[in-house]
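Quick question: what would this complex look like in 3D?
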Amino acid sequence: MTASSPDTPTTGRFVGREHRFPVRVYFEDTDFSGVVYHANYLRFMERARSDMLRVAGIDQRDAFANSEGVYAVADLSIRYRRPARFDDALVVISTVEHLRAAACVIQQRVMLGDELIADAKVTAAFITPDGRPRRQPPAWMDAFQRLLPESPDMIEESK
Amino acid sequence: MTASSPDTPTTGRFVGREHRFPVRVYFEDTDFSGVVYHANYLRFMERARSDMLRVAGIDQRDAFANSEGVYAVADLSIRYRRPARFDDALVVISTVEHLRAAACVIQQRVMLGDELIADAKVTAAFITPDGRPRRQPPAWMDAFQRLLPESPDMIEESK
Amino acid sequence: MTASSPDTPTTGRFVGREHRFPVRVYFEDTDFSGVVYHANYLRFMERARSDMLRVAGIDQRDAFANSEGVYAVADLSIRYRRPARFDDALVVISTVEHLRAAACVIQQRVMLGDELIADAKVTAAFITPDGRPRRQPPAWMDAFQRLLPESPDMIEESK
Amino acid sequence: MTASSPDTPTTGRFVGREHRFPVRVYFEDTDFSGVVYHANYLRFMERARSDMLRVAGIDQRDAFANSEGVYAVADLSIRYRRPARFDDALVVISTVEHLRAAACVIQQRVMLGDELIADAKVTAAFITPDGRPRRQPPAWMDAFQRLLPESPDMIEESK
């Protein structure tokens, strides 16, 4: 699935624990004020998270198809530092900050070259098809280990 | 459901066979060129169709929840006549042009006052949860009768 | 502009200092997991803010057309409490919490009946066409007075 | 700008006269019925057209910044053949069918492997900042030559 023919969409790549994901700004992403519409950064960041998980070996489609569950954003804060514009080539840099049994906390920065465009902290919760929090599949917990900051005791027993 | 407290979203209304649905243009709808992004008219028109069906007594949510089926756009053509801009108060005027057992054809015009902004023809097909065409529920066929042009023999036996 | 023909989009209404704005959930707002996609609540909330300002007498279109400036979201935090679904009739309740010379802070709650779906805090900054912070027009500062919590000394001299 | 670091977004590539552009289906692209929302194919196709132009040497951002003009979709027809789903890796294949002084007609197919998902015909008109049709820059007309079907007399004198 991650085999790379020129027709395969990018999945981004890890540089150390940082997942780097390129995003082009298209017409659809901007508004009449000339810059990227604020809600659209959430779309960019969600694409980056989905592909970070994919590269880490986590198959969200399968988990949903098998009625195991799906990630849902539980909370999110974002600070908009500078505007991005049509045609800009952005990079979303994501790192897993924290892991809980039923959730993970991800830091994300949207960059234009060396300039910080926006930075955010996102908590994604794993939930059952009917919306209840559920422990993530063990294989996912394992996949996340590689993505966590050094100290292995960062992995909390979660509520 | 169409009871009208001030907190209830509009569903538009019929004037004769024409369903009229108001839409405000917000930041999200525009792009950096200053006008409404072309794909967003499809969102406006889909809102209008959903509410036209609602007012006509067709409950799409129930049909999906009961695994009966769901409408999907099968084809669509649209002509963009003039741009609309931030803050414009548009009206989407929809009429059912044609009814088939498993589909309906709807004409839609997006107006800014007396100016035609865009006009489109949309075929919506009723499909099963796994994507096969299915006859619409009999109650829906009945509901559509009122919305069709005069001659009752317009209702075709479908392909 | 707020004259109400049946073809005029709603602008919501104030109940005391709270602006109440109805939003219907359409196909476009949901994702395959069955609920409203998290970024789309930001669109709902921005519609509500735009119309809160409109009702309060603030004309964003004019200010932009005259190159005075435009609001841009500077930061935002949101907590997703419960999912909303296709066809739900939501209400976005917005209150101005704080006013600064070049920004305002707005609390927003998305409700489904008595249920809290999401709540957020949004800072909108007034910026020049080239992106620098600018003092809001005096008429806007006046318009905001009515929307602020009782104590008139809440209005800070801003950075 | 098209130099290819791993952090640069793809621009797709030409295979003969066909521009091939990969698109991943993310959460944002789907709706509760489980498949890609119909209007979102227009976003995919617009991304592909923007990058086709970029690869062909046409700089839309510059033309807009210099107040020369911008492309706007004038009309569009699309036929939805099969649904695409979350996580699908699609390819948008675009070919220039026709060139006029102030417009171009582009055929686009959205593919999932060998399966046709949707096909469309799009007329994009070059317009001035205030919305009037304008002749495309000569350099753009030249750039398009390489993209047209064999017979050079396909290039019409336009209305």
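Answer marked as accepted. Chain A has one domain: 15-148.
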